[in-house]
Design brief:
The protein is an alpha/beta fold. The chain is about 40% helix and about 20% strand. It folds into 2 domains: about 260 residues, TIM Barrel (Alpha-Beta Barrel); about 80 residues, Arc Repressor Mutant, subunit A, CATH 1.10.10. The chain has 18 helices and 18 strands. β5, α4 and β6 form a beta-alpha-beta unit. α3 runs parallel beside α4 and α4 runs parallel beside α5. It is globular, with a radius of gyration of 21 Å.
Length: about 450
């Protein structure tokens, strides 16, 4: 039974990010494993997304539940890149052996912190992407203020990276310290200034809801990174998750919604445009070039220990974990795979008709609204017939519906994560509840 959206909104809870569906905690062992050659042969491969995962960081922030290892032992990074190169070679054979060419519309390198790798290893990551055909496409990479040096910046520029995302979270030492994040403001200023001058889009991630944070201090962080040259900004609510540093301590004064509104109003008053609950762009920010990629329509190919891949019928990845011991073991196991094992999906979730519909609805609403005619063409009936519970979202003012489309209202935009949680199927809820944290 679908839980009441009104009750969720009244609770004020922040339950999970809404950006992918289903969550990796729903993935289970696939028995038998699925051959990637047969799987991808049935897919439209004209506009794929290539994601390369680098699961290393210099520190573990108190809010972080990403699949990332802190300061691995010497030699691990090189062994990891070698394993990704092997996986990429296997994937190249898989994709080239299917009917028709595979083309990539986007490349993203994430983590962890990709710039934890030295410049030489980072260049090898870009080289393997080129060999797969993901060259001269809109390319994004994540960095941290303490890891980007001149040589790495040279690699980014030489590979024509179009967007760099810098994890800053706050410019105030007391706020970053409250979530166990060590960060020097001088590094933030150096890195953001240099990136703003070197790449088309310099994004900065900030968090609202940090212990002790106020609307005034949030605006100070926003203004500071804008003055450094950032032309894109992501505002993330603080989430407290199991097995993280914050998840092991008492609660804090929760005023995230008020802070979100203060940050949003400040950016809109400065002439910035809002693209989603989280994303804001400066006037005149460049638009992505090349082929159009829509995650609800096109596939994703993931390389690396924590990367997931999407096809229409199957999402797959290596097993998810949060604790450092489980992640270290998982990375070692992933690097030890044979080429035959890299050619199979062995852990994931099969998507039936209901999950495909829910995924399409959720991602369409979060992106730019849902085209009702396009939905009918794809799924054979109107969206309100398949998901009648959407009427409650209309009633409470989160969605506006007309004959042509369903679109988020301003209230729906700010509560996107609540909608994402609410739109999960009963099967996905049960699978997430049954995941054993590691």
């Amino acid at each position: 039974m679908t839980e009441s959206l009104r009750a969720l909104l009244a609770s004020g809870e922040y339950l999970s990010y809404a950006y992918a569906y289903p969550h990796k905690t729903t993935y289970r062992t696939l028995a038998p494993p699925v051959g990637l050659r047969e799987l991808w042969a049935e897919e439209d491969r004209g506009a794929l997304f290539l994601y390369v995962h680098v699961p290393f960081c210099e520190q573990r922030c108190g809010f972080c539940n990403l699949y990332t290892q802190v300061r691995p032992k010497s030699g691990v990074e090189a062994r990891y890149v070698e394993a990704v190169e092997r996986q990429a070679a296997v994937l190249s054979n898989v994709l080239s052996d299917t009917t028709g060419p595979a083309r990539f519309a986007r490349l993203a390198i994430g983590g962890g912190t990709p710039t934890f790798l030295g410049a030489a290893l980072l260049e090898r990551v870009f080289a393997l992407a080129r060999r797969l055909g993901a060259a001269d496409v809109p390319t994004s990479i994540e960095v941290s203020p303490g890891t980007l040096d001149d040589d790495q910046l040279g690699v980014l520029v030489a590979n024509r990276v179009t967007r760099v995302s810098v994890g800053v979270q706050s410019i105030l030492p007391n706020e970053t310290a409250s979530v166990q994040r060590g960060q020097a403001l001088s590094d933030v200023e150096r890195v953001v200034r240099r990136l703003a001058a070197a790449v088309p889009v310099c994004n900065v991630d900030l968090i609202y809801g940090l212990p002790g944070q106020t609307a005034e201090t949030l605006r100070r962080s926003i203004d500071h990174v804008l003055n450094l040259g950032a032309n894109e900004l992501y505002l993330y609510p603080l989430y407290v998750r199991p097995l993280t540093g914050l998840g092991r301590r008492d609660g804090w004064d929760d005023h995230r919604l008020a802070l979100y509104r203060a940050g949003r109003e400040h950016l809109l008053a400065l002439g910035w445009a809002q693209g989603s609950m989280r994303m804001f762009q400066a006037p005149g920010s460049p638009e992505p070039r090349g082929a159009v990629y829509r995650c609800q329509d096109d596939g994703m190919v993931g390389l690396g220990a924590g990367a997931r891949s999407y096809t229409r019928s199957l999402h797959y990845a290596s097993p998810y974990a949060v604790s450092q011991g489980a992640i270290r073991a998982g990375i070692e196991a992933w690097m030890g795979q044979s080429d035959a094992e890299f050619s199979q999906a062995r852990h994931g979730i099969r998507l039936g008709d209901e999950e495909r519909r829910r995924r399409y609805v959720l991602l369409s609403l979060l992106e730019a609204g849902l085209d009702r005619a396009a939905y009918v063409a794809r799924f054979g009936a109107d969206v309100m017939a398949h998901l009648p519970e959407l009427a409650e979202a209309v009633d409470v003012g989160l969605i506006v519906a007309d004959e042509a489309s369903l679109d988020l209202t301003e209230a729906g935009l700010e509560r996107s994560d609540v909608l994402g949680h609410w739109l999960q199927s009963a099967a996905v809820r049960a699978a997430r509840a049954g995941w054993e944290a590691a």
